[in-house]
Amino acid sequence: MAVGYLVTVVLAALITVFCLVRIRGPRPLFFFSYRLGLVFNEMPLVVIYGLAASTALAFAEGDISTGADRVAAGAAAVSAAGLAVVARRGMRTAPVVRLALDEGLGAGTGTRRRPPLARILLRPFLRRRGDVKRVGDLGYGDAGRRNLLDVYHHRARPEGGSVLIHFHGGHFDQGRKNTQSLPLLYRLASQGWVCISANYRLRPAFSHPDHLIDAKKVIAWARAHAHEYGADPAAAVFVSGSSAGGHMAALAALTPDDPVYQPGFEDADTSVAGVIALNGYLGVYFDGDPASSPVNLVRADAPPFLIAHGDLDELVDTENPRALVTALRSVSTSPVVYVELPGGHHAFDLFHSFRFEALIDGIEDFTAWVKANP
């Protein structure tokens, strides 16, 4: 038996199962399924490429000679078919996003676009763009490296851009800037936006509301300095976040200019034009304080929200974001767009994939609508 080929097929089969099914336990199985699933659920074609190359090589070298070898080749074909289903789920995202936009903002809001096939098929993990410059490690507070941010802007520095601030995920106890939602940051920056990705203080040394205070410091920094990189001084400021960062973005948007969360910068304008929460945890913080849940802070003057969540998210059930959607829609006078992504796992925002590229298209439509309807 071709042992090397068998190992490749077994690994591909496991990846396929992890992508197709939400697995939550036991813990060792969850760890591997989560890590492999979050990568290859967005890049299933990479595994298909590997299977095809490995199978072709095995046949070319005469390694498929026994019954067991042919079973392995059959398993490779089945895995490839399963991965094709995974890819198809991602390709279904575009119409789902357009429908959610039309329902939340009005018919005709969602725009049909061609996906960037070269990026998705050939270089899904290469996030940088030649027309965008990243200015790294700018300080916005006094907490050392946890109060550093990066700025992404077009190299030509066109004037009049809007601002997007992104907060990373990581359970509030890990993670860093320059890791998540980079396809979104680079895409918008290439169109003249000024995009900011920020670190913030982490557990266990810090807890709520320290993360929120840092988020507001970043918003205040953006209003004071984003024009230096091409933003309009009166630009619309949007906040976004992944996982725990989505919680921070939502809290910041629902507590504008609240001096309780702005110690030492009480007079700073920390209001935002809109919120984009990606695979966000949107419930009560670890300490159980009801005021730490966005659901309990909804208000009539809340800004527009776009909330996107995978229907196979392993870490955060869909009931969690749906609760905030329901609360906002019952109180807020602003629209709420909720997109439940078919086949989406947690952390779907890491790579150029059919799923995330379609969602970025939707984010562009959402932000354009918000700016046109202040």
Describe this structure in words.
The chain is α/β, with parallel strands linked by helices. It folds into two domains: 88 residues; 280 residues, Alpha/Beta hydrolase fold, catalytic domain (Rossmann fold), CATH 3.40.50.1820. The protein is built from eleven helices and eight strands. Strands 1-2-4-3-5-6-7-8 form an eight-stranded mixed β-sheet, with helices on both faces. Strand 5, helix 9 and strand 6 form a beta-alpha-beta unit. The chain is elongated, with a radius of gyration of 22 Å.
CATH topology of the largest domain: Rossmann fold
- Class inferred from helices and paired strands: alpha/beta
Query: Mean pLDDT score, rounded?
Result: 96
- Please indicate the count of domains: 2
Residue share in helices?
40-55%
Helix and strand element order: HHHHHHEEEHEHEHEEHEH
Distance between the termini: 66 Å
At the first level of CATH, the class of the largest domain is: Alpha Beta
CATH architecture label of the largest domain: 3-Layer(aba) Sandwich
> Main beta sheet: strand number and arrangement?
8 strands, mixed
Beta-strand percent range = 5-15%
CATH homologous superfamily heading of the largest domain: Alpha/Beta hydrolase fold, catalytic domain
Count of discrete alpha- or pi-helical segments spanning 4 or more residues: 11
